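Exercise 7. Given the encoded structure of a 454-residue chain, write a plausible sequence.
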């Protein structure tokens, strides 16, 4: 059996590698296959299709929003080739070598944390299955293959390059319970995606079909958590040309929100409006939603974003300044260089420098072309936010009036008066996904409560 495994110490290449202490382990696998790993993972066994009432009798664990989203992503194949939450061998390999144990590149831990005390209380052990519930309804099963503790500080140091609590990824990791539970996940009750996200959330299989229907074979992904200003619009246009793409897949990250972020509804609806208003032709631009909680892992998260969009059928992924970065933890263009260190991932990174407003060029100009750097007016999200928050009308060249109109509509309709996340939005927004009530089958009644464990 041929299995070549070798280690390439990256710090030999440059004094300050973007990958820190990561030692890339390359096995004899073809990382270019699409979906990642060659097969689109789909682990679906819906209760409504019948015949699996026994899962309702399993020990139940209610999961938080983040884990519910990740169950969905695993089961529908956004995370192909992952079939479940990672065991120690995979996690060690990801943490130290940025690949799964089988050699496929993977950069971000996908783990299910639980308290040892809760496991003991539920008498859950290796070999058991658990029913994961969300909003008190069945969501997925987890077949427990491994239960293990892990060094969270080590994980942070390797994945985030820091153990400072000021880093949101470090904070998230530290908040994990003291055990990781590993094993395959199967979705048993698909959530209802609520408006307006129902127009944008599609499974990888559905997105791949859409791209095929559109006749796109070269597709460039645009990751966003923003309402698009002109800089973003031109970034997409520039990447479309640079990639010689057939189309642009906008992949809006919808997940945990913090005060001051744009509300999720505004992000997807403004991107859609750019197309509807003709700034992009109907057949070159498609807006979709990805349910993901940003880890802000900089270059490692860039690799992760590329792999997920590869699973959606994209061939290219645009990366701008400080992609998925936070504070000053990562070098501005670390997310670009990391791809040079990796094998062919089957999705190419498209470098995008800044677009700014230049009064001399009399328009939006590209950093790599405009020679009036000293006169540039930056089109940063922060700048646009301050304009909107100040109640001033932004110049049409910086934020399209059509986009601003949608921002205002969203503020009224979804944002309790503001396009930015505030306390009311955090407390009372319509959830992105809701669960179908599963009818009780134990007593043939129509109540929506789960039967007690037998
Ligand atoms: Zn200029």
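Solution.
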């Amino acid at each position: 059996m041929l299995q070549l495994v070798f280690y390439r110490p990256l710090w030999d290449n440059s004094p300050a590698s973007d990958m820190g202490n990561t030692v890339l382990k390359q096995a004899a696998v073809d990382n270019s296959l699409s979906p990642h790993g060659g097969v689109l993972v789909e682990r679906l066994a819906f209760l409504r299709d019948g015949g699996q009432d026994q899962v309702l009798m399993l020990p139940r664990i209610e999961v938080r929003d983040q884990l519910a989203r990740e169950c969905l992503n695993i089961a529908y194949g956004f995370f192909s080739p992952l079939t479940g939450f990672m065991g120690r061998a995979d996690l060690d390999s990801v943490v130290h070598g940025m690949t799964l144990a089988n050699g496929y590149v993977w950069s971000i831990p996908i783990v299910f944390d639980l308290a040892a005390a809760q496991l003991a209380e539920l008498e859950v052990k290796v070999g058991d299955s658990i029913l994961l519930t969300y909003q008190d309804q069945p969501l997925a099963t987890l077949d427990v293959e491994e239960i293990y503790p892990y060094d969270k500080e080590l994980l942070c140091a390797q994945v985030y390059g820091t153990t400072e609590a000021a880093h949101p990824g470090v904070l998230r990791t530290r908040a994990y319970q003291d055990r990781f539970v590993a094993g395959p996940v199967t979705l048993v009750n698909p959530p209802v995606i609520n408006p307006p996200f129902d127009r944008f959330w599609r499974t990888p299989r559905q997105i791949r079909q859409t791209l095929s229907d559109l006749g796109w074979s070269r597709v460039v992904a645009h990751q966003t958590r923003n309402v698009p200003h002109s800089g973003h619009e031109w970034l997409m246009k520039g990447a479309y040309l640079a990639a010689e793409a057939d189309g642009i897949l906008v992949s809006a990250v919808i997940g945990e929100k913090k005060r001051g972020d744009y509300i999720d509804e505004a992000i997807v609806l403004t991107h859609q409006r750019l197309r509807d208003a003709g700034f992009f032709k109907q057949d070159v631009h498609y807006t979709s939603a990805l349910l993901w909680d940003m880890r802000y892992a900089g270059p490692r998260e860039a690799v992760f974003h590329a792999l997920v969009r590869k699973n959606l059928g994209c061939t290219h992924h645009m990366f701008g300044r400080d992609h998925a970065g936070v504070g000053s933890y990562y070098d501005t263009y670390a997310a670009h260089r990391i791809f040079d260190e990796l094998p062919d991932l089957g999705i190419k990174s498209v470098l995008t420098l800044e677009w700014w407003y230049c009064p001399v060029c009399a328009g939006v100009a590209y950093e790599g072309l405009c020679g009036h750097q000293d006169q540039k007016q930056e089109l940063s999200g922060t700048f646009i936010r301050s304009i909107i928050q100040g109640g001033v009308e932004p110049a049409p060249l910086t934020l399209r009036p059509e986009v601003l109109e949608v921002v205002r509509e969203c503020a009224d309709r979804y944002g309790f008066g503001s396009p930015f996340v505030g306390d009311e939005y955090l407390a009372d927004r319509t959830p992105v996904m809701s669960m179908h009530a599963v009818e009780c089958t134990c007593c043939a009644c129509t109540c929506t409560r789960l039967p007690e464990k037998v």
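Remark. The pocket of zinc ion is lined by residues 358, 360-361, 365, 370, 372 (CB under 6 Å). Students should compare their own answers with the one above.
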